[in-house]
Amino acid sequence: MKLLHIDSSITGPESVSRRLSRDIVAQQQAWHSGLQVDYLDLAAQAPNPLSLDALGFRMPDSADIVTEAQRLENEVSEALVSQLIAADIVVIGAPMYNFTIPAQLKAWLDRIAQAGRTFKYTETGPVGLLGDKTVILALSRGGIYSANPAMEHQESYLKSIFGFMGVTDIRTVRAEGMNMGQEHRERGLAQAQSDIQALIAA
Is the pLDDT score of 124 beyond 80? Predict the structure, then answer.
């Protein structure tokens, strides 16, 4: 089995989402003998945001209409989507920034949401192609947003886009209240650890 471990926090090794994603990966390695892990740190290796050149993977495969800049961007997109498709389990560490995910993670999602690779269009609408994968979200939040969905565009967005790509096994580890004082922080971290323990039973 293969696991793709993605981090997107910009705050370094002490990041809560990075800590949670590390714990989840260690748990999965203990549970799945011989698990191969591929690591992608989007804070250090984020693709460029989408541009006309970065839309190269949506253009026909013809050398006479694809520029050199488009070809180079296409290579980035192809490498990222191939890495995702090869994985059986995807663990994503994602903090909440301004009510949503980091820009680096959004840039990655824009590269891997590819018609014909991760979803396809049909006469009855789009159909996801990643239904054989497990996605585990390791989420951190400075406040508490689980009871305020109008301001929560982190977990809901990630579940929506992976659901669009056909993933039905999406599991969430959530640490809330990280910036609300020691008591809230300890409670949120304890809940996250409980969520991690529950992953194996899911």
Answer: yes
